[in-house]
Design a protein that fits this description.
The longest helix is centred in the last third of the chain and has 11 residues. By secondary structure, the protein is of the alpha+beta class. It has one domain: SH3 type barrels. It is built from three helices and six strands; from the N terminus they run E-E-H-E-E-H-E-E-H.
Length: about 120
Amino acid sequence: MAEQGEIYWAELDPAQGHEQRGRRPVLVLSRNEINRLPLTLLIMVGTGAERVPELFATDILVTVEESGLPKDTVFLGLQIRSVDAGRLGDRMGRLPLTRMPEVWQRVRYVMGDDRRP
């Protein structure tokens, strides 16, 4: 069972338009009670930090040292989606619990809370 704050590889194809596609790191956002079902999981999609020239207020940079990821990764707050648990592949690491408040701050901002992170 995936747990909130864990990072997995996920296969996101097929995708449309501006959605991130292909094999990507994803951060599990949904609470563990939901993840136990498992129907769908709420995730935030990541991309390599080298591909992000500028961080937006909705993004969160996660380093190799703190996460267990193979490279620094930016999780994109505008790429939050619900996915079937079957899309998850190998567990890659975990975001430190001390960083989760930053994630929630970005999610709230995306959802309409006007306070900038």
